[in-house]
Specification:
- GO terms for molecular function: nicotinate-nucleotide diphosphorylase (carboxylating) activity.
- The protein is of the alpha/beta class.
- The protein has two domains: 52-157 and 332-350, Quinolinate phosphoribosyl transferase, N-terminal domain (Aldehyde Oxidoreductase, domain 3, Alpha-Beta Complex), CATH 3.90.1170.20; 163-328, Aldolase class I (TIM Barrel), CATH 3.20.20.70.
- The chain is built from twelve helices and 14 strands.
- It has helices at residues 52-64, 70-75, 97-107, 136-167, 183-192, 210-216, 219-233, 246-258, 283-292, 309-313, 324-327, 340-349; strands spanning 81-88, 92-93, 112-115, 122-123, 128-135, 171-173, 206-208, 239-243, 265-269, 273-274, 280-281, 297-301, 319-321, 334-337.
- Strand 8 (239-243), helix 8 (246-258) and strand 9 (265-269) form a beta-alpha-beta unit.
- Helix 1 packs across helix 3 (97-107), helix 3 (97-107) packs antiparallel against helix 4 (136-167) and helix 8 packs parallel to helix 9.
- The radius of gyration is 24 Å and the shape is elongated.
Amino acid sequence: MSRIIFSSPSTLPRLYSTSRRIVKMSVTQTMNPGVSSRSMAVKPPSHPTYDMKGVIKLALAEDAGDRGDVTCLATIPLDMEVEAHFLAKEDGIIAGISLAEMIFHEVDPSLKVEWSQKDGDHVQKGLQFGKVSGQAHNIVVAERVVLNFMQRMSGIATLTKTMADAAHPACILETRKTAPGLRLVDKWAVLIGGGRNHRMGLFDMVMIKDNHISIAGGIINAIKSVDHYLEQQNLQMEVEVETRTLEEVDEVLRYTSQTKSSLTRIMLDNMVVPLPNGDVDVSMLKDAVEMINGRFETEASGNVTLETVHKIGQTGVSYISSGALTHSVKALDISLKIDTELALEVGRRTKRA
């Protein structure tokens, strides 16, 4: 089986053209080469093992296969230089600008990327918000990978912004329902959209859910086991427990009032009840928040939509988590065009610009 090695430009004769002199782009830190300080408006969340550069290389490799871009090799002279413009085809929050710079840098460090917007800014349909100039072959090779990331991230950021504004004063969180391999990318987009990150994975927070409770033989047994484990391992981290009834909430409150516990947050799961008329009843959620009375952080989960999130946010709950921010994302329509006049003409004809 043939392999693609990304160790140096000289090993990539079929993938990227590298005949021009290489010029390093400005960097904000060594872990993010090719990212300008202005574009890094929101830093990515931290993860102990996530390899962002590896994700970029994998995305490029799956596109290039074992031959590279045969269409570019056939139609574009290796020494041709062009300028291509990013065009928003619908309104939304732009995200992925910093990641786009990393991808262009990986393909060809001599490409020059400029932006009129930064991650988190609102863009309107028809706006040209950035450009990349340099070797045409390498711009076209990077184009689809850049757009795939930017469109997904911008879609997440756009939905997050809408949800976060509606949820106020509660904070909106995503979940672990992210695209496999894109956990950090998806959660970065949530931050760009004005949301907050829930736990990154299984390692950075204890989250006692229904299956843990069932296996442990009850909610108090599960909390006791977690307290014992953390003490035994000399670990300090946030601990959340899922409750599904007011009786479970009361059980947790009675136990933690009598015993020292590591518990920091109580999830109030499916306490938002859908009504036949399309509205929701949040009285159970509100009762639970009042019972807890600030002793612990609270998190509402279940039946969270654009239509319900405002009402949920008014109950006094600390956080509202929504898997839909990342698992049901609608990509924001963005394109990268060399002939922008023709692109706009086509866009106007199809009502997309």
